[in-house]
Amino acid sequence: MSTAIRHLFYRPESAELSIWFAPEGRRYKYFDVPQSAYEALRDAPSRGQYFNRAIKGHYRCTKIEEESSRNRRRRRLGAASS
């Protein structure tokens, strides 16, 4: 278990890796990440060390603002209940 990384989510069809960082829960999305890099991060004894060595600075990324992700989730939920 990593103290730096709270949660990972990988979307293989688009090669996007989302990482939630502890303790604040900041979320970043990384693009064009090979599945092998995601699996290595997921299985690393220290996710924070692996992230700093092999992910950070190697892939284009963007910070996902909490409000925008909440709005998307609400729209999806609203569409599903209509």
Notable characteristics:
82 residues, alpha+beta, four-stranded antiparallel beta sheet, 4 strands
Textual characterization of the structure:
The protein has helices spanning 35-43, 47-55, 66-81; strands at residues 5-11, 16-21, 26-30, 61-64. Helices cover 41% and strands 27% of the residues. The chain has one domain. The termini are far apart. The radius of gyration is 14 Å and the shape is globular. By secondary structure, it is an alpha+beta fold. Helix 1 packs antiparallel against helix 2.
Quick structural summary:
The chain has one domain.
Uncertain spans: none
What structural class should be given to the helix and strand makeup? alpha+beta
Number of domains: 1
- Please report the distance between the alpha carbons of the first and last residues: 39 Å
- Number of E strands: 4
Largest sheet, described in full? 4 strands, antiparallel
Envelope shape: globular
